[in-house]
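Dear colleague,

Thank you for sharing your sequence with our group. We've completed the structure prediction you requested, and as agreed, I am returning the results in plain text so they can be pasted directly into your records. Please verify that the sequence below matches your submission; if there's any discrepancy, let me know and we will rerun it promptly.
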Amino acid sequence: MEELVRLDEGLFVRAGAAWRRLQLSLDALLALSVDDIRRRVESAEAVDPPRSTTARAPIESQEVWAAGVTYQRSLTARAEEAVSADPYERVYAAKRPELFFKATAGRVRASGEPVRIRSDSTWDVPEPELAVVCNSLLEVVGYTIGNDVSSRSIEGENALYLPQAKVYDGCCSLGPAIVLARDFSPEGRTISVEIRRGESTIFAGETSTAAMRRSIPELLLFLGRDQVFPAGCVLLTGTGIVPPADVTLEDGDVVTVRIDGIGELVNPVQRHEPV
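Please find the predicted structure tokens below.
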């Protein structure tokens, strides 16, 4: 299985213990068609393993977008927390999906880096998600792991507060690498999450992409309407794992998200200081 790994030294293709270096940035690569990307990957020069293999977040100038209420569990949780459940119930069955802007690249953290929780929130949760990496033509180039950190207390107070619940510094993590789509099928993949506090696991959950109501082509069809992504984009496809109301992230927790066939995304948690 081949994957794109973004390091301090540049962009690489990794297949097991073998490394090849791409002579262009992730932005430049995702500006190409899938066929051109395949040719670039296949012609990349073999190199010795890099000195440091600590991966950076697999994103440069791409925007991160997200889909909501794509799993039944997400619908139930959003309806329970909201003042009015009606918008979530309606969008679950509607033709048009819920899509929202999640993060710029500067708000995204790599595996190993701290994700943040808001200083003005009382209920914060990770949202483990399959992330789709697309090129400028909205063709699927590959997949990675995403953590859509969210303030459920703010979102539940009023649906119009969704941007504040979702978009802030450190609100998202991606990684560790991009598994190329030609080597990976997103169908029936197990997604799991674990929250550790000190030596204890305070929450663990698991779902499967088989439980998604919306298909990835359907979500990308709506995302691409009246929008242009010159260097591609990342789409988070929604979560099917929602911790109960008595579980909330705290400063110092560690969140691990795993997706079968991709690996794991690990982030410590850090609370923003009150203003």
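Summary note from our side: Residues 3-47 form one domain.

Kind regards,
the structure core
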